[in-house]
Amino acid sequence: MMMQQDLLEKRQNIERLRQRTSLSKQQNSQLNESIASSWQRSAQAEIPEHRVAAPLLPIPSNSQPTALQHALQHCADELKHIAQQSSMVLAVGDVGSTIIWSASSRQMQSAAESVHFIAGGQWREELVGTNALALTLKTQQSSCVFSNEHYMPSVHDWVCYAAPIIDPHTRQILGVIDLSTVWKNHNSLGLLAAERCASIIQSALLEFQKQHLYIRAFSVPQVLFNGKVMVLTPRQIEILTILALCPQGMTLDTLHQALYGERKVSIGTLKAEMSQLRDILGGMLGSRPYRLLAQVEADFLQAEQALDAGYLDSALKLCSGIFLAKTESPFLCAWRDCLESRLSQAIFNAKETDVLLKHVARFPEAIDAVERLIELMPGNHPIHQTLLKFKQHP
Questions:
Q1: Is residue 54 helix, strand or coil?
Q2: What is the assigned CATH class of domain 4-210?
Q3: Per-residue pLDDT tens over the stretch 38-91
Q4: DSSP state letter for 157
Q5: CB under 8 Å to 121, separation ≥6 — which residues?
Q6: Which InterPro entries did the record assign (predicted)?
Q7: Is 224 helix (H, G, I), strand (E, B) or coil?
Q8: What spatial distance separates the first Cα and last Cα of the chain, rounded to whole Å?
Q9: Is the pLDDT of residue 381 over 60?
């Protein structure tokens, strides 16, 4: 643990930097680069000055649990014990920094409740400013936010350590775990503790995902079973994608219509496809109705969930190409059109210029993002002129 005098001096130095409207290179170097960038984004986010707690979402009672929530059910007692023994509050957030589970020691419980560092609390940077949950998801690496490095004054007495929670099979970030206490208890081992808690959850994910099917449908379509790529035909991937979108199951006739539409393909051909899939998947493919029995996740389902929650950054990262670009399935084509329409609408309503700039850098042909950036960027900004030229000559 650092000496109290050192911590006090660190806090005072941060406060001096906070008072400045802009930071020189030398002053900037005194801060972690990611903190300085976060301060800048927070200042532009129009966060209400009187805000003392994160906006609170009601917890849906009938929603389908995610893989992360299933894993938390397996390791909740161990995480609660860690929070209580360390005099900390421990919170797990989803990919949009909304807390989905928390446990608190007696010492931190009242403070956590007062700022909504509890299930339902929305800790997105554009809502509450600099904080470890949002910073870890933004940088995709562990982070510490000390005392008045936080944007909201109501958490200036806190120090927070956060680490990403990574899917063991797909290597995608599923969420973030945060350990928080008062700044006077700051410890250089705090980040290691957060990473250890993330590994506990990842072990629980492995246990839960013993029969785990993951479908990638953007860019190069691919199906993974327990982390291993399966050798499947494009048609078989289409069938699995349809069944993933219809978890209640489908009759043979309904599946035939969804897959082939009006094309003259016999029912017998589809039966043969299903027979081959059953040989490959074993007990994972149910019949009457046809349905997937394994734990199913997919990049397109995660993108849809991200849009439902208003997490544009996550949705854009997941939509890394055209959804099943070569499919002729009327069902899948209609679903793709719907997703692209929702994505364009979210871009049209977006206010985060850094998110849109990253998207345009990855996909220069994304004219909807270019047009939205032109609306958001000041007319005298150098990037504004570049965007105008790009729109005229894509």
A1: coil
A2: alpha beta
A3: 998 999 888 998 999 999 988 766 667 788 998 999 999 999 999 999 999 999
A4: T
A5: 53, 54, 55, 56, 57, 91, 98, 99, 115
A6: GAF-like_dom_sf, Sig_transdc_resp-reg_C-effctor
A7: strand
A8: 55
A9: yes
